[in-house]
Specification:
It catalyses: O-phospho-L-seryl-[protein] + H2O = L-seryl-[protein] + phosphate; O-phospho-L-threonyl-[protein] + H2O = L-threonyl-[protein] + phosphate. This protein has 290 residues and is of the alpha/beta class. The chain has helices spanning 41-52, 70-79, 113-130, 133-141, 160-164, 186-199, 218-246, 258-277; strands spanning 11-14, 60-64, 84-88, 93-95, 104-106, 180-183, 206-212, 283-289. Helix 2 (70-79) packs across helix 7 (218-246) and helix 7 runs antiparallel to helix 8 (258-277).
Length: 290
């Protein structure tokens, strides 16, 4: 577990409850819908805004060891609604090979998912199709160019080239900062928190760092990715409520507004409610700084 040399950094371990609760989905009676021709302009405008979704969207970052399985499934889930980037924390990208002592090893930041796919396809199409690696890489190459290492990322450095590469979810992350980082393994959480501490907070910008512990297999990555999407939705709803309550949107990104501080205070409560719904995914949280 990472040690915390900064007094303002607080780490909370959320206990796993015994019972799972379910929330009832909102339903709409079709008989109560208004015929379009009978709506007034104000109603039509309000409904159009509701269909657009929240007026503000938090920016997310997902992290696992190799930026291939768990972080990329979460990247996929979040990219459908939110600005998102993703990273790995390992020294190299390691994928299963023909034996446990013969992994396939690639470099971060300079190897594309497409190259990985073609390399393993040519080595043993049957093996890597049966163990799901080719399917995983095919998903990845349709999401972003290649795996990135978290320790090589420079927060605040523009990421315009990722839009040009067609990375999904990159729209909105051009400034190179995020509001929330979600790791998928405790050792990755430790690496992220340590790295942020070592950087010395040059931007003086708060960032919430969560860990959602997900086993590194394709099935649990899918389950975990959906749960991370649920957490993102809850956080984003709260952020929008606070921004509307304090009506000071311009100061939100500076990290010094009352809305931001009120949101920060509500995060443990939000995570606790989320944990009750997902008791099999132990979670950690801390507030850190860029």
């Amino acid at each position: 577990m990472a040690t915390d040399p900064q007094p303002q950094l607080e780490t909370v371990v959320v206990p796993t409850p015994e019972m799972l609760y379910a929330t009832e989905a909102d339903s709409t009676d079709a008989s109560q819908l208004t015929i379009p021709e009978q709506r007034d302009d104000a109603s039509a405008t309000a409904e159009a805004k509701a269909e657009e979704g929240p007026s503000y969207k938090l920016k997310f970052c997902t992290v696992c060891a190799s930026n291939n399985n768990r972080s990329m499934e979460a990247h996929l889930q979040l990219s459908r609604s939110y600005p998102v980037i993703s990273f790995g924390t390992g020294s190299l990208v390691r994928l299963p090979g023909p034996s446990i002592t013969q992994p396939n090893v690639f470099n971060f930041d300079s190897t594309s998912y497409n190259h990985m796919y073609e390399d393993l396809y040519n080595k043993d199409q049957r093996l890597y199709r049966n163990n799901g690696i080719l399917n995983m890489l095919d998903r990845n190459r349709n999401l972003k160019w290649g795996p990135e290492r978290f320790q090589n990322w420079v927060p605040g450095q523009p990421r315009l080239d990722h839009i040009a590469k067609g990375d999904k979810g990159s729209l909105g992350t051009e400034a190179g900062v995020v509001d929330v980082i979600i790791t998928c393994e405790e050792r990755c959480w430790d690496a992220v928190v340590d790295d942020l501490l070592n950087r010395g907070s040059p931007l003086n910008r708060p960032v919430h760092v969560f860990n959602v512990d997900i086993r590194d297999n394709h099935e649990e990555a899918l389950t975990g990715g959906k749960a991370i999407r649920d957490l993102a939705d809850r956080l984003n709803t709260a952020a929008n409520e606070e921004r509307q309550l304090y009506d000071d949107p311009d100061s939100w990104d500076r990290g010094a507004s009352e809305a931001r501080q009120s949101f920060d205070e509500k995060v443990p409560e939000i995570l606790g409610a989320w944990q009750e719904k997902h008791p099999n995914l132990p979670a950690l949280w801390t507030l850190s700084w860029f």
